[in-house]
Amino acid sequence: MTRPTRSYAVQSPSDPFAPFSFDRRDLQPDDIGIDILFCGVCHSDLHTARGEWPGTQYPCVPGHEIVGRISGVGSAVTGFEVGDLAGVGCMVDSCGDCASCDASEEQYCEKTGFVGTYNGPDSVLGGYTFGGYSDHIVVKQRFVLKIGHAEADLAAVAPLLCAGITTYSPLRHWKVGPGQKVGVVGLGGLGHMGVKLAAAMGAEVTVFTTSPGKREDALRLGAKEVIVSRDADQMATQASRFDFILDTVAAPHDLDALLACLKRDGTMVLVGVPDSPHPSPNVGNLIFRRRALAGSLIGGIAETQEMLDFCKAHGLTSDVEVIPIQKIDEAYDRIVKSDVKYRFSIDMASLTP
Description:
Layout: E1 2-9, E2 18-25, E3 31-41, H1 43-49, E4 66-73, E5 85-88, E6 91-93, H2 99-102, E7 115-116, E8 136-140, E9 145-146, H3 154-157, H4 163-173, E10 181-185, H5 189-200, E11 204-209, H6 215-221, E12 225-228, H7 232-236, E13 242-247, H8 256-259, E14 262-270, H9 283-287, E15 292-295, H10 301-313, E16 320-324, H11 328-336, E17 343-347
Helix pairs in contact: 4-5, 4-10
């Protein structure tokens, strides 16, 4: 048995979004059904829907920043009840028994790879998964998150399921905390959360941006200083100052000027995925200060729950512009122009006929 589900989908890379109906599976014993209230819009959605990354299957229903209300639970589910607020992020399955899964790092699953909330293999119905630009989703219990924020905050909570965990995970892994100087490169959907989270962890935050006009916002979000990265003189004043730099920019750029800002033993972590490679960094920039250049991918389910709890405790949400689903193509065009502060969140009530 299946449940009819309403959504918005694209049928090809060049098509606009349009209403699309498909079937979700009925609840299995360990499944949770969620009526979706809000879904954040990630740049990854755009890359996938418009075929900018390889492997998109059509019709495509994106969306992996999902918050809603539980409408049903399977017979083996514990800890969740109908009526609870819940979230679903970038993953809905993994092998469950490799070293990474055993360590609650499902995003690095070594056997099957993690199953994406959309455009991933559907092990129950066959075919591939459909995401959160829809009115309902069914997910295995171990990939469902508890939402502690107030219901009035849900639109701004949704992007935490990707933008929040993508920035939280490296900050936690590299033990960012009080007394450290942290740089955040880029002030977009990811970067604005990086600033909020690093500041809440007690770090002194500097934003590196190519846009001088973002200074006021950066300071409002928690930064102590703003550096225009295209200004060589300003960059020179930052040499060897930082313990950690989080680079959120998803476009190719010169990494050397940023690496030179790290102290001895400092680390720069990349979380943005450009559509073509960064210019290769100068190895000497790393060797002569024992600096490290690393990457990080979202976070595991346990860490995502930790992030949500941290954000609730510190009163953190994303800065969002709420839109109806009918404006998703317009939103994509504005994302390309960086015309959003700082994340779109879709009110899924707009799906109602």
